[in-house]
Design a protein that fits this description.
Length: 297
């Protein structure tokens, strides 16, 4: 190799060396938090945010330096299609890889509170569970916006930053997940989802075990079929009018929803709950009256 060629090769090596250093420094800079990172703040990741949009919003909030590197980190972690919406608390600056990991797995960094919603709770009773531990929760808004009957009773771990809107969405989404496996059965039944949930809410209020739920279900569907008022004590308007109530009266659990779909065939048209807590069934009104006198004193 001639001298000019050797010198040229050396120059290329030196250039590549310095270029690699520059690229490493530039890459490292983009993988470190911005100098004005919003430490001590809460960043909201909206439901349905796409990766592109989220990366630009995080850049705008000074949470990351490079939207590109954040997207790369998210894709590497497999979170581009499963980002957890919610409010994330950032106590101190974090790298885009850590932020991507947190959003992928829903590590909110916010204190969580356990909330248990029993079967049959109304919207108003659910609202009362969110007391002083949830400073952003608007009870009046929740009671206006929440769809009675479609908030699934369950145990939830809610961030203390939960709002009325986010709570409705969490419980409504849980309802959809739980009801999805039996939707084919609902469709095959010839009944609408609304009618099934309304009936389930009545059953939830009337019976406290699965055997009685399924028997009560049979009695109530039978009364509907023959045009007889439902006459259930948990909804006194059913003594005055025929048919189902206009909307659910509470938020039923899955057992009551299944009972509404799968009634146990019986010869009965009447039932009552005795003072002993047991349910007694009758074929005729006279038999029903006799049992009323015997078991309800």
């Amino acid at each position: 190799m001639h001298m000019p060629e050797i010198e040229q090769a050396q120059k290329i090596k030196i250039f590549l060396f310095f270029l690699s250093i520059i690229l490493v420094i530039a890459g490292a800079a983009t993988l470190t938090p911005p100098p004005d990172f919003p430490s001590g703040s809460i960043i909201d990741v909206a439901e349905g945010s796409g990766l592109q949009r989220l990366s630009l919003e995080l850049k705008k909030e000074n949470v990351i330096r490079s939207p590109l590197w954040f997207r790369v980190a998210t894709i590497i972690l497999g979170g581009e299609r499963d980002m957890k919406a919610g409010q994330y608390y950032f106590e101190r600056p974090q790298s885009p890889f850590v932020i991507a990991w947190r959003i992928r797995w829903g590590r909110y960094g916010i204190e969580m509170k356990k909330i248990t919603v029993p079967e049959g709770f109304t919207v108003q009773k659910i609202s009362a569970l969110f007391g002083g531990n949830f400073p952003f929760f608007d009870n009046a808004m929740f009671e206006r916006a929440a769809p009675e009957g479609y908030l699934f009773p369950d145990t939830y771990f809610m961030p203390i930053t939960a709002t009325a809107t986010s709570t409705v969405k969490t419980m409504r989404d849980n309802f959809i997940r739980k009801i999805f496996p039996i939707m084919p059965e609902i469709e095959d039944s010839g009944k609408s989802l609304e009618d099934v949930i309304i009936m389930a809410s009545l059953i939830e209020g009337e019976a406290n075990n699965q055997t009685d739920r399924e028997m009560v279900s049979d009695v109530l569907w039978k009364r509907l079929k023959i045009g007889m008022p439902l006459q259930v004590d948990v909804e006194m308007k059913t003594y005055e009018f025929q048919g189902l109530p206009e909307k659910p009266i509470n938020n039923p659990g899955l057992d009551s929803i299944r009972a509404a779909l799968r009634p146990t065939s019986t010869p009965y048209l009447y039932y009552l709950t005795g003072n002993d807590g047991k349910m007694y069934y009758s074929k005729t009104f006279d038999e029903h009256v006799a049992k009323k006198q015997k078991y309800i004193r």
